[in-house]
Amino acid sequence: MTSFRRCPEGRIATPLSRWPGLLPFLALSVWMLLAILPGRLAAETLPREVRVGVYVTSVFDVEPSDGGFGIAGYAWFIDPEGTFDPEHGMQLLARSAQTRIFVDTELEDGARYAVMEFQAVYDHAFDVRNYPFDRQSLPMVIEAASTVSDIVFVPDTRDSRVASNVRAPGWSVAGFDLASSMATYDTGFGHRAGHPSFSRLTATVSLARNMSPLLFEKFSGFFVAFAITALVIFVPLEELGIRVGMSTGSVFAAVFNRYRLEDAVGFDAVFGLIDQVSFLIFSLIIATLFLSLFSHRLSKRRGPAVATRTDHRLGLTILIVHAALLALAFGVVLF
C-alpha cells in the first residue's frame, strides 16, 4: 500500500511530486505511442504493391469473325518484399494461355524480380461499325490471385511497349497503353464472404487496319450494282424486260458483296458502314425497279415522250440522292 506524507506546506506528497521529471516523460511516451501506432497499423493493413511491366513481341490471328486475337511477349513482376510468386500469384484472363517463368532472382535491394514468357488467345468484342476503315483496341488482362487487400498491381510504364518489329497481317500498330484497375466479382468462389475484388493490369495494343491502294475495293460489288442500276434509266421504256433483268443482276452483285463482307466481320447487330451501304444500294435498286414499272405504264397512258421525260428526271433524282447519301456515309467514317 502506498503511503503519503505531508509536505511542509501541508500538501500531500505523491510519487509524481517526488520525481517532477516523471510527468513530462510519461506525456512524451504517450504522445510517441499515439503517433507511431496508427502508422504501424496502417502499414500492416496496406496491400503489397507489385510492379508489373509488359513487352509485346507478337500480335496474331486478329479475327473479328472469330471474336478473338492472339498475343505473345514477356511480363515482369517486381515485389519489394520479395515474396510474390508469379507462377501462382497471377493469371491471364484469356481463352487459352501458355506461360513460362524463365527468370526468378533477387535484386540488390532485396526485391524479387521475375520474368514470364506468355502466349495467349483472348476473346474480344470487335467494334466493326467502321469496317474496313476501323481501328481496334486489344486488351490483354493480367489479374492477381489474391484480393486487393493483399496484392495491388502497379504498372511499370517506363519499359513497357510493343516491339518495333511487330507486324500483324492486315494491321498496323497505332498505340500501346498500360493501366491498372480493380475487378469485383459477384461470387465468393466457395470460400470468401461478400464480393471479393482483385487487382488487374491491362496492356492494350491499338491497331489500325491497313487500307488497300484501291480504297473501296471491298465494296466493289456494291459499286458494280450501283453502275448497272444507273444504266437502267438509259434503256428505252419499251424494253421493260431488259430493265428488270439489269436490276436483277444488280441484286446478285450486291448480295454477293454483302455475304463476302459478313464472312470477314461476322454478325454484328450494330448498324455500321456495311449495313448503311447495303441499305442504300438495295434501296436504289428497288426504287429504280418501281420507276421502270411506273414509267412503262405511264408510257401507255400519256405517250412515250412524256413518260421518257418523267423517267429521266425521276431516275436522275434517285441516283443523285443515293450517291450523296453514299458519299456522306463514307465521309463520316474517313473524315
Automatic annotation (TrEMBL):
Keyword Transmembrane helix appears in the UniProt entry: yes
InterPro entries registered for this protein in UniProt: Neur_chan_lig-bd_sf
Keyword hit for Membrane: yes
Keyword terms: Membrane, Transmembrane, Transmembrane helix
Transmembrane segments annotated in the record for this chain: 22-43, 219-237, 269-294, 314-334
Protein name: Uncharacterized protein
